[in-house]
């Protein structure tokens, strides 16, 4: 695969539509191509926004309440006009029963509750999109760093792990191609290997596919490598299982 081909695969890379060999080639290419790294950041942001653009249907309780009122509230007959003196048409006003006012008020309160819930959902989606954009920007900055170094290693079950380290940013990014989803109730947790058997928590892998590039939490500092373990949802303060991946950081 030549460099020209790699320039055309950024969209498929973001959508996780590449085979392991192609994904590994693109990830190596991103470390040296600032324009492609920028494309990946922009595509990732767009995909994130599209994924958040979902409609929120009304609750079942609100639907049931509307149907109940349709069946129980009597429909008023059409109003007719009365002709007053001089042939002027006067509208016929009917007093509004108190129960009708109460029904309108209850409906307004219910709709107000729906509006508040929808606003809160929209606000949550906006904050999630903001966090995703910041994370994408941070990942892209590491991949595009002038001193970014890349290391790739085979993992179990034919998966491939790739880590990119930038000394100037003191950060690292990890991605795994072909790694199966963790068991139910479990997550993949990342660790810095500080040597001497000491593993420092470095966050959880992204919530998307395991191939999603994830920025390790915290600075690289003196870490010589990283590992990945399967942990209970929410993560653990120290590894509780054998590592599924161990990678040594590339040296200059």
UniProtKB/TrEMBL annotation:
<keyword id="KW-1003">Cell membrane</keyword>
<dbReference type="InterPro" id="IPR041916">
    <property type="entry name" value="Anti_sigma_zinc_sf"/>
</dbReference>
<dbReference type="Pfam" id="PF13490">
    <property type="entry name" value="zf-HC2"/>
</dbReference>
<dbReference type="InterPro" id="IPR018764">
    <property type="entry name" value="RskA_C"/>
</dbReference>
<dbReference type="Pfam" id="PF10099">
    <property type="entry name" value="RskA_C"/>
</dbReference>
<keyword id="KW-0805">Transcription regulation</keyword>
<feature type="domain" description="Anti-sigma K factor RskA C-terminal">
    <location>
        <begin position="101"/>
        <end position="244"/>
    </location>
</feature>
<keyword id="KW-1133">Transmembrane helix</keyword>
<protein>
    <recommendedName>
        <fullName>Regulator of SigK</fullName>
    </recommendedName>
</protein>
<feature type="domain" description="Putative zinc-finger">
    <location>
        <begin position="9"/>
        <end position="37"/>
    </location>
</feature>
<keyword id="KW-0804">Transcription</keyword>
<keyword id="KW-0472">Membrane</keyword>
<keyword id="KW-0812">Transmembrane</keyword>
<dbReference type="InterPro" id="IPR051474">
    <property type="entry name" value="Anti-sigma-K/W_factor"/>
</dbReference>
<dbReference type="InterPro" id="IPR027383">
    <property type="entry name" value="Znf_put"/>
</dbReference>
């Amino acid at each position: 695969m030549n460099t020209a081909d790699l320039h055309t695969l950024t969209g498929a890379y973001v959508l996780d539509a590449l085979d392991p060999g192609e994904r590994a080639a693109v990830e190596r290419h991103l470390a040296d191509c600032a324009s492609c790294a920028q494309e990946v950041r922009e595509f990732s942001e767009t995909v994130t926004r599209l994924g958040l653009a979902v409609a929120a249907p009304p609750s079942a309780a609100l639907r049931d309440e509307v149907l109940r009122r349709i069946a129980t509230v009597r429909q008023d007959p059409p109003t007719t006009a009365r002709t007053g003196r001089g042939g002027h048409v006067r509208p016929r006003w009917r007093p509004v029963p108190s129960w009708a006012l109460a029904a309108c008020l209850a409906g307004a309160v219910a709709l107000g509750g729906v509006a508040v819930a929808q606003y809160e959902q929209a606000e949550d989606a906006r904050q999630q999109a903001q966090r995703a954009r910041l994370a994408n920007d941070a990942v892209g900055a590491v991949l595009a760093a002038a001193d970014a170094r890349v290391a790739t290693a085979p993992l179990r079950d034919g998966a491939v792990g790739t880590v990119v380290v930038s000394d100037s940013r003191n950060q690292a990014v990890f991605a795994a191609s072909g790694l199966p989803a963790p068991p139910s109730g479990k997550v993949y947790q990342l660790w810095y290997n500080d040597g001497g058997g000491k593993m420092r928590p470095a966050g959880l892998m992204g919530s998307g596919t395991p191939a999603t590039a994830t920025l390790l939490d915290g600075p690289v500092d003196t870490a010589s490598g990283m590992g990945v373990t399967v942990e209970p949802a929410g993560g653990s303060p120290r590894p509780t299982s054998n590592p599924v991946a161990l990678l040594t950081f590339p040296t200059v």
